[in-house]
Design brief:
alpha+beta, Glucose Permease (Domain IIA), 13 strands, elongated
């Protein structure tokens, strides 16, 4: 605090030395408190020293223990928020702190939802350069959580074998398999198979057919559903962009859009289903279906 008004002590020279010694001896925090109560330094140099110390201490005290409120925007998912906001603990920490607001499914977040990022979320921004590097592993955790099953999976074959069917993506590892149980899914289990691919990967129709729907699918984000000659339906979800429209006919391997992370997800991937009807809840094993048509998977 700058010295203003009348000084209580006129003996400036000796008192200034006392401040300098105390400052180098580690009692820099105690002396500004005395100055705040009236024991101001009698010289401009001492007052400047007092002001400098106050300026360095106050911001740290103001930021300590505070939390940040984040409003979910369109296209957000927990892993992205954790990465962008440098949340220590990653998307799992955000979900743990906001479970009552998000609900049982960590992928079900919607624009406008207010999330508390907690005191730890503010720590990287308030500290020295060493802190952001410590936050890097946290940013990587959502990807590891999403691909933990993929880490032991082998790469899928690039194409079909001339049977009229092919993979929806080339050379991708399988992430979460069909029928994996979990409370994060409203059905109680995973209704499709996830192919781990980055945003912008070409998504292909697995066989010739007719597009029955193409557009926004709620929790599925941008999706395409195609009916095939055998009466089965293939569904492709969380896409970043679509290349086809309802009513359009497609051929085996034709590009229908690009992969992404739209809808309720924890990271970019292709969610792929085979259904007996065009609607949710009629799913069958998609990998078994592809293999029955001669496509090598895994």
């Amino acid at each position: 605090m700058p010295a203003k008004g009348k000084h209580r002590r006129p003996k400036s020279l000796r008192f200034t030395r006392t401040i300098a010694v105390a400052g180098t001896g580690g009692a820099a925090l105690a002396l500004p408190l005395l100055g705040a109560t009236g024991a101001h330094a009698a010289t401009p140099a001492a007052a400047a020293q007092h002001t400098q110390k106050s300026a360095t201490v106050a911001p740290a005290a103001a930021k300590a223990g505070t939390s940040t409120t984040y409003a979910v925007k369109a296209g957000d998912y927990l892993a992205k928020i954790a990465d962008d906001q440098h949340v220590s603990g990653g998307w799992k920490k955000i979900y743990s702190d906001n479970r009552s607001a998000i609900g049982s499914d960590p992928s079900l977040i919607h624009p406008g939802l207010k999330l508390s990022l907690g005191a730890k979320a503010a720590a990287p921004q308030a500290s020295a350069p060493a802190k952001p590097s410590a936050a890097k592993p946290a940013a990587a955790k959502p990807a590891a959580a999403k691909t933990d099953t993929a880490s032991t999976a082998t790469k899928t074959a690039a194409v079909g074998n001339g049977s009229g069917y092919t993979l929806p993506v080339d050379g991708a590892a399988i992430g979460t398999n069909y029928k994996v149980a979990g409370s994060m899914w409203s059905s109680g289990y995973h209704t499709g198979t996830d192919f781990v691919v980055p945003t912008g990967t070409t998504i292909k129709s697995i066989a010739a057919g007719t597009v029955v729907s193409a557009g926004w699918g709620g929790a599925y984000g941008n999706q395409v559903v195609i009916q095939h000659a055998d009466g089965r339906y293939s569904q492709y979800a969380h896409m970043s962009s679509l290349s086809v429209s309802a009513g359009q006919t497609v051929t085996e391997g034709q590009q229908i859009g690009l992969s992404g992370a739209t809808g309720n997800v924890t990271g970019p991937h292709l969610h792929f289903e085979i259904r007996t009807t065009p609607d949710y809840g009629s799913d069958i094993d998609p990998v078994a279906y592809l293999r029955s048509h001669g496509v090598a998977v895994g």
